[in-house]
Automatic annotation (TrEMBL):
Highest classification ranks of the organism: Bacteria, Pseudomonadati, Pseudomonadota, Alphaproteobacteria, Rhodobacterales
Gene3D superfamilies registered for this protein in UniProt: DNA mismatch repair MutH/Restriction endonuclease, type II, Winged helix-like DNA-binding domain superfamily/Winged helix DNA-binding domain
Keywords of this entry: Endonuclease, Hydrolase, Nuclease
Source species of the chain: Leisingera caerulea (Phaeobacter caeruleus)
Domain of life, source organism: Bacteria
InterPro entries, alphabetized: DNA_rep_MutH/T2_RE_sf, NaeI, Restrct_endonuc-II-like, WH-like_DNA-bd_sf
Record's protein name: Type II restriction enzyme NaeI domain-containing protein
Domain Type II restriction enzyme NaeI span(s) in chain numbering: 42-282
């Protein structure tokens, strides 16, 4: 998606304002408010994309590595998940909002392809920019004058440069969670998934990627075990935390160890995130011990 998009002309007095503004209000209300929309849509997009990339099973780390059919499926998945998120029913097009047929269009690129059946109908536009980790959600009435003259073999047309000015944005250039594996060293990823057991893989994850919040779903994917949360805790010397402690590495939970994370000057972690760090001095070892985390630290 272009980094600089034109300001929207869809304001009171615009011919589409009476159509799009009520739809935008209804979508926001169904999402649970503007803040919920800003949180849930980016999270939904991240999940839809990662579920197709399937790094733990395939070794792929980026959208660009997907097959063409898989990329197409992401659009279908986003449509389904967005309807579920907003509790919308299927309509003549993709959904129905306030009695209007609305087409849902998703892109991982810089534009959307509008089918002939959606011409002159409202479209809910969704976009995810994986390279920049930014997302978009907008509404447009797909009038012919907002579309390009050229079309593809399916007679679909894209939105013209002028047409972008007639989009009413709900989310515009908003950050969404970056692909965790895209940012990781390729050799480290290979070493992590070379482990034969869930404990081995999780221990390598926190050995090789330290001082960086790691989401719960990444840990679960690496563990490939239903009881991964039990494995991550101390477990009579066999748990992931036990293995790391013997190496002088502290494994902390954003939910239970937020004060220690702050005291160690580590990046803040959300409740469902974990972070590891190597204990570098006796003072930090003492703080960890006071918080209930015994980590081996040389005393001589």
């Amino acid at each position: 998606m272009k980094q600089k998009l034109p300001d929207s002309l869809v304001l009171p007095g615009h011919p589409d304002f009476g159509i799009l503004f009520p739809l935008a209000e209804e979508i926001t209300t169904r999402a649970g408010g503007a803040l919920a929309l800003e949180h849930d849509v980016p999270q939904m997009l991240r999940q839809c994309i990662d579920d197709v990339i399937m790094t733990p099973k395939t070794g792929r780390r980026a959208y660009e590595e997907l097959e063409k059919t898989e990329k197409t499926y992401i659009g279908t998945r986003v449509e389904i998940e967005l309807r579920a998120l907003l509790k919308l029913r299927k309509g003549r097009l993709d959904t129905e909002i306030l009695g209007q047929d609305v087409d849902i269009k998703h892109t991982m690129g810089g534009n959307w392809m509008i089918p002939t059946e959606a011409i002159d109908c409202a479209c809910l536009l969704v976009a995810a920019d994986e390279v920049r980790a930014r997302c978009y959600l907008g509404l447009i009435v797909a009038r012919p004058e907002y579309l390009t003259q050229g079309q593809n073999k399916d007679a679909k047309r894209s939105i013209s440069a002028e047409g972008f000015r007639h989009i009413l944005w709900l989310l515009k250039d908003r950050p969404y969670p970056a692909n965790f594996w895209r940012m990781a060293d390729e050799a480290a990823v290979a070493e992590i998934f070379a482990g034969e057991t869930g404990n081995e893989r999780m221990a390598q994850l926190f050995r090789l990627i330290q001082q960086r919040p790691i989401p719960r779903d990444v840990v679960e994917a690496v563990a490939q075990q239903k009881d991964f949360m039990r494995r991550i805790r101390s477990d009579k010397g066999r748990g992931t935390r036990d293995l790391l402690a013997r190496d002088g590495i502290l494994l902390l939970s954003g939910q239970y160890d937020s004060q220690l994370i702050k005291a160690l000057d580590l990046p803040p972690c959300a409740g469902g995130e974990f972070i590891s760090c190597r204990i570098e001095n006796e003072y930090h070892a003492h703080m960890a011990a006071q918080s209930g985390h015994a980590v081996e630290w040389p005393t001589s």
